[in-house]
Amino acid sequence: MTTFEHFAEPYVHFAAELADAARPLALSYFRTPLEIVSKLDESPVTIADRTIEQHLRALIQARFPEHGIYGEEFGIKEGNAFTWVLDPIDGTKSFITGFPLFGTLISLTMDEKPFCGLIDVPATGERWVGQPGHTSFSGSPAKTSMCEKLSEARFYTTSPDMFTGDQVDRFETLSRSTRLRRFGGDCYIYGLLASGHCDLVLETGLQPYDYMALVPVIRGAGGCISDWQGNDLSIHSNGQVVASATPELHDQALALLNP
Predict the structure, then answer these.
(1) Is residue 130 within 8 Å of 219, Cβ to Cβ?
(2) Neighbours of 168 (CB within 10 A)
(3) Are 117 and 143 in contact (CB under 8 A)?
(4) Residue 31 CB: number of other CB atoms within 10 A?
(5) Residue 47's pLDDT is what?
(6) Better pLDDT: 5 or 135
(7) CA pair distance 140, 193, nearest whole angstrom
(8) Which domains does the chain have, with CATH numbers?
(9) Is 87 annotated as a binding residue?
(10) 203 annotated to bind ligand
(11) β-bridge pairing 224-226 and 180-183
(12) CB-based contacts of 73: which residues, under 8 Å, 6+ apart?
């Protein structure tokens, strides 16, 4: 274990504790009658989203009071160089329609850059945990596929409806250059990529709490993840995300996205 990995261990363990606390709360609300409220951006939110985030924020405050917190539902609490980024239910539309592949995203940033993070899928009991140099899936190492060619790639996006304006043409050009394309899954599809079951993911319109946890998971599994221009993702990124199994595949995807 490297010095950096050793440094990350306590935070990774705490992130897992947070996910363990969130999972039963999510399941207690799943497939039950819920009041659905539309936020200013018209995205849906439920009592489940808010209850989970409040609980996680309280746990973080108790353990690391000096750390910042950035949550989807309750905004930013300023802190030191470390900030926990929380999405209590990633895939709220899936959650409220009974689709089981919603997740809880928890990450820790250091100087506004992703440091460690996890994808937890309460309904299936699956979890990907990413940290410097390593990603695990349910306790075992996770590795991306060896796919290096777009023509052989298995492509995913949550929904074609995400893309607007000239993004539509870029999405169609890229996705139709792959071997097959599938839709749906929110954060779950990034777990599939980390475990080698798909090869390429393209999305847009994401917020930091949607993607910060994904970066350590994908990179720790050997994959690449960036914005559409190839820049590293940070809290200040523009919400365009492309993730690939290999550097070769990533370069080909970026070339089509930026003709």
Answers:
(1) yes
(2) 13
(3) no
(4) 13
(5) 87
(6) 135
(7) 15
(8) 3-141 (3.30.540.10), 150-257 (3.40.190.80)
(9) yes
(10) no
(11) unpaired
(12) 45, 49, 50, 53, 88
pLDDT digits (tens, 9 = 90+) for 23-49: 999 999 999 988 777 655 556 678 888
Sheet with 82-90: list strands edge to edge.
75-77, 68-71, 82-90, 103-110, 113-121, 126-131, 134-137, 140-141
Q: Of 100, 62, 103, which is closest to residue 86 (Cα–Cα)?
A: 103
Contacts of 149 (CB under 8 A, 6+ apart): 248, 249, 252
Q: Kindly report the CA angle at 215 between 210 and 221, in degrees rounded to 5?
A: 135
pLDDT in tens, 233-256: 999 999 999 999 999 999 999 999
Q: Could you give phi then psi for residue 158, rounded to 5 degrees? A: -65, -45
| Tokens 């850059």 -> residue | 113
Return the pLDDT at 2.
Answer: 54
Contacts by 53-62, CB closer than 8 A, 24 or more apart: 53/86, 53/88, 55/21, 55/22, 55/25, 56/18, 56/21, 56/22, 56/84, 56/86, 56/88, 56/106, 57/86, 59/17, 59/18, 59/21, 60/18, 60/84
Q: Is 119 annotated as a binding residue?
A: no
Report the amino acid identity of residue 53: E
Q: Which residue has the tokens 């003709």?
A: 259
Ligand-binding annotation for 89, yes or no, is yes
Beta-strand ranges (E) seen in the chain are 37-38, 44-45, 68-71, 75-77, 82-90, 103-110, 113-121, 126-131, 134-137, 140-141, 154-157, 180-183, 200-203, 224-226, 241-244
